[in-house]
Amino acid sequence: MKPFQYATATSAASARELIGDNGAYLAGGNDLLGLMKEQILNPAILVNVKSLPGFGAIQPGWKVWTLGGGVTIADLEDNAELAKLFPGVQQAAAEVGSRQIRNLATLGGNLSQHSRCWYYRQRDVLCLKKGGDTCYARHGENKYHSLFTGNTCISPLVSNLAVALAALSATAIIQRGTQQLPVSIPELYAKAWDNPTAHNSLQPGDLISQVDIPVQGRRSAYLQVSEKAAFDWALVSCAAAGRIEAGKISHASVVLGAVSPIPYESAAVHRFLEGKTLDEETAGKAADLILEGAHAQAHNGYKVAIVRALVRRTLMQLTA
Amino acid sequence: MSESNSNGRFSISRRSFLKSFGTTAAVAATAQVQAVTSELEKVNAEKVLGPEAVPIVLRVNGKSLKLQVEPRVTLLEALREQVHLTGAKEVCDRQACGACTVLLDNKPVYSCGMLALEAQGHEITTVEGLARNGKMSRVQEAFVDEDALMCGYCTPGFIMSVSALLKTNPHPTAADVNHACSGNYCRCGTYPRIMKAAMKAAGVATTNTTEVISYAKLA
Amino acid sequence: MPSWPEKRTYIGSHATRVDAPAKVTGAAKYASDMQPDGCLIGMILRSKWAKAKITKINLDKARKVPGIKVAVLRDGTAERTVRYYGEELAAVAGDSKQACMDALSLIEVEATELPFVVNVEEAREESAPKVWDDAPNVSKPRVKEQGQVDKAFGDCTAVVEGFFTTPVQIHQPLETHGNTISWKDDGVTCWASTQGISSVREGLAGNLQLPQSKVRVISEFMGGGFGSKLGFGVEGGLAAVLSREAKAPVRLMLTRFDESLAVGNRPSTYQKIKLGASADGKLLAYELENYGTAGIGAGGATEGGSGGVEIPAPYIYHVPNTRARQYSVAVDAGSSRAFRAPSHPPASFGMESIMDELAVKLNMDPVELRLKNDPSEVRQREFQLGAERFGWKQKYKKPGSSTGPIKTGVGCAGAQWGGGGRGTKAEAVVNPDGSIEVRCGTQDLGTGTKTVIAVIAADLLGLKPEQITVRIGDTQYPPSGGSGGSTTAASVSPAIYDVCTKALEEVQKQSGIADARGANWAAACKKLGVNPVVVQGEWQKGLSSSGVGGVQFAEVEVDTDTGFVKVKKITCVQDGGLIVSKLTAESQANGGIIMGMGYALYEERVMDKQTGVMLNPNFETYKLPGLADMPEFDVVFLEMPERGVIGIGEPVTIPTAAAIANAVANAIGVRVSSLPITPQKVLAALGKDKLSA
Questions:
Q1: A77-100: per-residue pLDDT in tens?
Q2: CB < 8 Å to B117, chain A
Q3: N or C: which end of chain C has fewer CB within 10 A?
Q4: Cβ-proximal residues to C609 (8 Å cutoff; 6+ apart), any chain
Q5: What are the tens digits of pLDDT across the range C384-409?
Q6: Cβ A172 vs Cβ A183: under 8 Å
Q7: How far is CA A27 from CA A174, B74, B124, C141, C167, in A?
């Protein structure tokens, strides 16, 4: 890593001030330190935000659960009440990295993490996302890349939690300047859909201060498929949520990860599922619907089959 | 102006050298307090440290140690190079293999993924801190008994992960052990024995089915 | 003629690994852990171009970085043509990692980029950029023929063909390559992470132009090698020069990035195989065309040798009419090195895959087909025993016949290997208090050499292994060879046998006690007076031999909706002569199987054609098997004590990928003929890799 300064912020205001023009917030540091070790990011100052008031707290509530941006993924994984109420979130948390990572990694960090595309992460390749001219994945090694994108950069979202939280209609509160801006999860990533250098919609200096999950009586589930059994990025991930009454699903949501720069959903799928009996056939049709508009790269067509399987299985988990 | 660097040697203009990387943020430091205590964050809140080496205090295996580290020095590097505890190994330096695992307040973390100065105010336990009065811990003994190692390079990391697991879950299932150790790799391939050692340390006996059969006696 | 004792207590037992306590407490010190006073850190600057003509390297700014003591050019020159991403250019030594990193970033390199090629198929083209100016990328094919292969194909009832590919696999020992080198007036000490302390000494002495007697190399503990650490290496040379120039000790360990690029790999293979048999399954004709890449190290490919592309063909089965045509293809990527059973795992994969295809065509049980054509009686027994233990008859079903999306399947494969031992010397020092020290300049890579020595000494002297002090890994001790080719146990064991036999004889002679073993040992030694007994011993014939087989069976579960492969069970039946340490032998088997699993399912070097870089020089995307990927293991050793000690470290990794690939094909009814067998390839084989359902 290049040399940098370090300071601990005790308020959002001082965090902003300390970060200046060329600084980065340091929470868990899994993503940030990795990028700095490759010198892909070289902030002049790291501002520790772990001491911001309430930042690391999980606040249960009747109407809404508030998760501080600094809540560790391990805390999410271990929270029994959360697991009962929002199983999709807990399951997504349990799959993040390894236990060692989860003990330090934070919710905010997981949501704002940078692309894992191996061209992006390659220290000596100046790809489109890093400000260069070319998305090398387009005509190169793209088996891990997007099926749905409006972008010349085809690197996909890898955050498990973005997918699970999107399915549950969570809201992220972004501290931007002196303002607290509530954004939906789709809005949190919208800019990445067609902006090659964007990983999400955050602006420099933004801090995800909390995520609110509304309590809506919806079941949820999260599944992913990787090349290995554990500690491996998802090839495709899927979260589903919905109310199940007498075998029928309502307020349905199906979200895909690792296939698009954004947590991918289709309104048509949600409309289709509304009020239907949730069985294998319905789930299969939802899978077909979600794949409309998919565009395979040279080497990632296989993800289509995995999407099919995961949409079916994740939806069927809701009936379990 | 010469200053001593982290190894106590004198180097000319290290501060100005580091400044040449464009690392000085345009922010005024507030507190000037030099003392480093366990209320570190409160005392040092807002204070801009570095980029040159700063004094820190780390609690390692029950001892308080004073060190000088640049902010960019990882906990792994500080432990190995300055505290001279070489049990935690550098294998990937990318939070991807587990050989650098130490316990931070009894929680396993990748020490290569933490800044040394952020480990202040926590209890750090390394593999060297597990034995009590020269007697190995139960997990260490189980690793020896079940031969859960070959070259031994991944071994301290695994021992920390298994030790941490058993502290919070004294009766883990095999799936629990898999989940707790998913972030540790072994290239020699001792996984089956590591599982046996974890189970043994948890008080669950496992059988060994390997056989040596005399060829001459084959039917 | 010497022979191993009939009655064995510790030899062949489950006696614990003698260096386990040091390893579990963190006390074991590896080359990377050495911190002599005033030790500097060394780091290497590597080429960011796949191919370039370097004209100038300016080290001035680097030298001025506070904390930096020296900066050197590789081989003292800036002018070179680099031929792969990651090739070494220069090195620095400083008092901290940070100083070194800062210094590397300030080294200015002037280079003219040149056209490169990193893809094997592209490199084969006439129009491809040449890796070496004075040689074609494609080496002259070596053709080996036997019998009348074209005619024989005509006589076959069943003929099958296939195209099988295996990737470049990287050793990735957890301890990277590197050395800590320390200079004193009386000589140089080098703590090396190595499989060959003698070759490191030779290289180091030559590099520094010192007499070998002034160079001492130590490798008591080392974190894995798998064949890649048999020489001194560019990094060793750089560390030596840095240390000499700085007049200070230097520790230079590679980073994982370095390790992935520049210190060896297993060559890829692209095997076109045709196999024919008569109706009863007797193999009649075999034809192979194989090419692959050893990186920039093309040409000079040797069968079963140090790292060449050529593979033994046909592998293990008897075919009277054969033709094998093999050549290597150079690309601008890191060169290959011997990697655990060089050339055998890909050979086994190709051969065993085509054998199963033939079995299907002949409607024959795959094990029956092998029994019919395997010339090795030992391996035939292994197939039979393995099949029984594995439950082959119950588990084997026609390909693709499981119902439901999760399909199970089984497969098998065989192996052969040499092993064997050669000249090793050892020394034993018996003290009047009965303590005994056995010294040998061999290495323990985690393979258990120290334990092998301890149990042999224990049994020969009637003592316990804990009573034996074992000292290895130091060029001050009598020499052994490098630890490669599964030769260590077979080389060291006879030498230990000899030295302990001689030590016992000497103690008995000096003490006047006829049998000084066991209970009499202490009393006998007391009679030695003041001076210890020091004896030399060496490898003797008759206590070791070479040539082993080995078979493995695999059961897998394939999720045909997602392509995910889970290995459920591996049964391994391995012969190895006299099994000296059951404990460490089993670990070798487990380890070899797991490495074979990685080769089968996860590992491959990915090069980018556009930029020439390696895309996965890390553990995130160069994927190693983890604990959760483990199957059930069933390991059986067939012991033949009369054959003496034979090494088993390599044969146990040869047939694993082949067995797994056969099991996958059996499960899903179509074959994935390319390793690693990823979900992508499984789904492609099932026709599920397109947008339309």
A1: 999 999 999 999 999 999 999 999
A2: 6
A3: N
A4: A140, C118, C119, C122
A5: 999 999 999 999 999 999 999 999 99
A6: yes
A7: 15, 15, 19, 58, 39
Q: What is the rounded CA–CA span in Å between residue B131 and residue B147? A: 18
Write the residue in B17, B149, B150 that is nearest to C24 by C-beta: B149
State whether A288 and C683 contact (CB < 8 Å): no
Q: Which of the other chains make 3 or more beta carbon contacts under 8 angstroms with chain B?
A: A, C
Question: Is the domain of B155 the same as that of B185?
Answer: yes
Q: For residue C255, what is the domain's CATH number?
A: 3.30.365.10
Asked whether residue C314 is assigned to any structural domain, the reply reads no
Distance CA C263, CA C200 (A): 15
Instruction: Let me know whether B55 and B123 are in one domain.
Output: yes
The answer to whether residue C63 is domain-embedded is yes
CA distance A2 to chain C (A): 7
Tens of pLDDT along B95-114?
Answer: 999 999 999 999 999 999 99
Residue C618: which residues within 8 A CB-CB, separation 6 or more? B92, B94, B96, C256, C257, C260
Q: Which residues of chain C are within 8 Å of residue A232 when distances are taken between CB atoms? A: 623
Of the three residues C262, C292, C321, the one that is the final residue of a domain is C262
Q: What was the pLDDT predicted at C14? A: 84
CB contact B87 to A (< 8 Å): no
User: Inter-chain contact C256–B92, Cβ cutoff 8 Å?
Assistant: yes
Q: Identify which of A7, A18, A100 has the shortest CB distance to residue B101.
A: A100
Q: Which residues of B touch C549 (CB under 8 A)?
A: none
Chain C: residue whose CA lies nearest to B138: C24
Question: Would you call B178 an interface residue with chain A, using a CB distance cutoff of 8 Å?
Answer: yes
Residue A93: φ, ψ to 5°: -60, -40
**Residue keyed to tokens 């590099």:** C207
Inter-chain CB proximity C224 and B194 less than 8 Å: no
Residues B143 and B161 in one domain: yes
pLDDT at C664: 98
pTM for the model: 0.95
Claim to verify: residue B55 and residue B120 sit in the same structural domain: yes
C550 C-beta neighbours (distance < 10 Å), count: 31
Q: Which of C244, C224, C246, C245 lies closest to C177, judged by CA?
A: C224
Domain of residue B153, CATH code: 1.10.150.120
Residue A252 and residue A239 in contact, taking contact as beta carbons nearer than 8 Å? no
> Rounded to whole angstroms, how far apart are CA atoms A189 and A264?
10
Domain with B166 in it: 138-201
The pLDDT averaged over each successive group of 10 residues in chain A (320 residues) is 97 94 97 98 97 95 98 98 98 98 98 98 98 98 98 97 98 96 98 98 97 98 98 98 97 98 98 97 97 97 98 96
Minimum-distance CB partner of C25 among B128, B184, B216:
B128
Q: Inspect the interface and report whether the beta carbons of B113 and A30 lie closer than 8 Å.
A: yes
- Residue B26 located in a structural domain: no
Q: In angstroms, what separates the C-alpha of A22 from chain B's closest C-alpha?
A: 7
Give the pLDDT score at C184: 80
Residues of chain A found within 8 Å of residue B70, distances taken between Cβ atoms:
3
Q: CB A9 to CB B51 under 8 A?
A: no
Domains and CATH numbers, chain A: 1-52 (3.30.43.10), 58-113+155-317 (3.30.390.50)
Q: What would the pLDDT profile of A205-230 be if each residue is shown by its tens digit?
A: 999 999 999 999 999 999 999 999 99
Chain A contact present for B117, CB below 8 A: yes
pLDDT over threshold 80, residue C136: yes
pLDDT score at C355: 98
Answer yes or no: do B149 and C17 touch at CB < 8 A. yes
**Which residues of chain B neighbour A3 with C-beta distances below 8 Å?**
18, 21, 23, 50-51, 70-72
**pLDDT at residue B34, rounded to an integer:** 29
For residue C45, give the amino acid letter: L
**Cβ–Cβ < 8 Å for A145, A300:** yes
| CA A296 to centroid of chain Cα atoms | 21
Q: What pLDDT was estimated at residue C439? A: 96
- The model's confidence at residue B21, banded by pLDDT at 50, 70 and 90, is low
Residue-number span of the structural domain to which C188 is assigned: 34-114+172-262
